[in-house]
Structures are given as structure tokens and as C-alpha cells.
Amino acid sequence: MAFIVPGGILFVARDADSEQPRPQYSKFASGTFTYGVGTHWGVQHFGVDIEGEIGTPILAVADGTVLEAGPAAGFGMWVRLLHDDGTVTIYGHIDTATVSAEQRVLAGEQIATLGKRGFTTTPHCHFEVWLDGEHKVDPLPWLATRGISLVP
């Protein structure tokens, strides 16, 4: 809403509800939850997988800084983010990275596109959580405590 006052001064009243607060956490990809932590094909699987179409946007789950974005053994391509609390998240089997090392990203910002690179049979995003950058934890409860559910 704008008001014009005689003398040429313009006042613009801003609606306090017009700006939405930025999310603190975001689901990392849309698609179908297919695998969780466990043994798959005789190999320990430390993350969760979201299957989807190649090119589907992959989003930063929380604010952080890009540690790596590019080739990774097994994953083909990945993005690794260091979050403000010291947690590291990994997004594997990506098609393309849309960020680069040392770049600052916000929760919900696109960091990559879903792919089928590395050791995989279907297009998906493999997501891992490492507390303090080294202790792998099950991403499902970690995400749930942040209001994110992958399973219907």
C-alpha cells in the first residue's frame, strides 16, 4: 500500500505477512523413497534413496557450505555440504552439480540434479548424514526431528 503526501514524499507501508520466513530445513528431493539404512546387495547402505526422474532438482537440506561437488568413487558424482552445526550431508549419484566448492547455500536451494551415475541401477539421489563430519547416522530419524518425512 502506498500513500502520497502533498510535497512529494512517498510512504510505502509493507504488509508484515507479505514476506514468508525462510525454511530452516528442506526435503532434499521429490520422488519415491526406495531404500533406507541396511544391507543391500550384500553391501552396507548408510543412507536413504529417493528415486525419480533424471534432472529432478536436488536441494540443500539445510544452510551450509559446499565441501565438494564433482566426481566421487561409487557415487559417480556427488555434492558434500558442511552445515553450520558441523554436520555433513552427502547427495550421491547426481547427474549435474549446480554449485561449486566453497559456495554458501541455503536450505531449499538447488545444488544438483538427480542422476544415475556410479554404481546404481535406477535414477535416484542417495542421501547420507555424518555428524561432526565423520559419524554416519540413519538419515530418517535425523530428517524426522527436522520435520521432514520421506515415507508416506
TrEMBL record:
Record-annotated M23ase beta-sheet core domain positions: 44-139
InterPro entries assigned to the protein according to its UniProt record, in alphabetical order: Cell_wall_metabolism_enzyme, Dup_hybrid_motif, M23ase_b-sheet_dom
Molecular function in Gene Ontology: metalloendopeptidase activity
Domain of life from the UniProt record: Bacteria
Pfam families per record: Peptidase_M23
Official protein name in the record: M23ase beta-sheet core domain-containing protein
Species whose genome carries this gene: Nocardia ninae NBRC 108245
